[in-house]
Design a protein that fits this description.
Layout (H helix, E strand, L loop, with lengths): L1 H23 L4 H22 L6 H4 L1 H16 L1 H4 L5 H23 L4 H22 L13 H16 L4 H22 L14
Helix pairs in contact: 1-2, 1-4, 1-6, 2-4, 2-7, 6-7, 6-8, 6-9, 7-8, 8-9
Length: about 200
């Protein structure tokens, strides 16, 4: 039940971020729903496929489509209300990143994966929705721009792995991992933390 709640809530907040981008790009209602569903479910679909869980829950369980549509409707018709939240897209994106990273790691651990592959799968699950949202909206994905994005997801996943290894309660482990990822992501945005970028290494004319 904990994993299902995390999954649905993560889907909802990532879908909110996708719908926000769609409205900002002045897409029609169908385009907003597409971005909402893509952002909300891409990470979960990638996670399930890598774990061999087919069909993915986002397709097999109507609730994932339901929360994605709900997010799209809410943003499309009440955009100004949602937009009152400061840096709404970044907040929803950070929350989705944290929830999917934690949930992906927990699912991997429950299926018997080791600590390292579980953490990597959690990170991939976390960044999937944001990457597809950015690609569909013609943006360079955050993980390719030097943003502290995949790194925050990986750190959150590592916290989960450590907590699981110490046999802490699953709810506490999930909260700790999500808080670490979300806090690091928002701190990076507000303080301008960046990973080192490639310099101009090409041949000079």
């Amino acid at each position: 039940m904990t994993l299902l709640i995390l999954d649905l809530f993560g889907t909802f907040v990532f879908a909110l971020s996708g719908a926000m981008v769609g409205v900002q790009r002045r897409l029609d209602i169908f385009g907003v729903f597409v971005l909402a569903f893509a952002a909300g479910n891409a990470g979960g679909v990638l996670r399930d496929l890598l774990l061999g869980s087919v069909p993915p829950l986002a397709i097999a369980d109507w609730r994932y489509l339901g929360v994605s549509v709900l997010a799209g409707v809410l943003v499309f018709y009440k955009y100004h209300f949602v937009d009152r939240l400061r840096s709404a897209v970044l907040i929803f994106d950070g929350a989705g990143l944290a929830l999917f990273s934690v949930n992906g790691t927990l699912k991997a651990l429950q299926l018997g994966l080791g600590p390292v592959p579980a953490a990597i799968l959690g990170m991939l699950s976390g960044v999937g929705g944001g990457v597809l949202r950015d690609v569909l909206s013609n943006e360079t994905p955050a993980i390719l721009r030097g943003d502290f994005y995949a790194t925050a997801a990986l750190i959150g996943a590592v916290v989960v792995v450590i907590g699981h290894g110490l046999s802490f309660p699953q709810e506490i482990v999930a909260l700790a991992g999500a808080s670490a990822c979300f806090g690091l992501r928002l701190s990076a945005v507000r303080r301008g933390w960046k990973l080192p970028l490639a310099g101009n290494k090409g041949p000079s004319n």
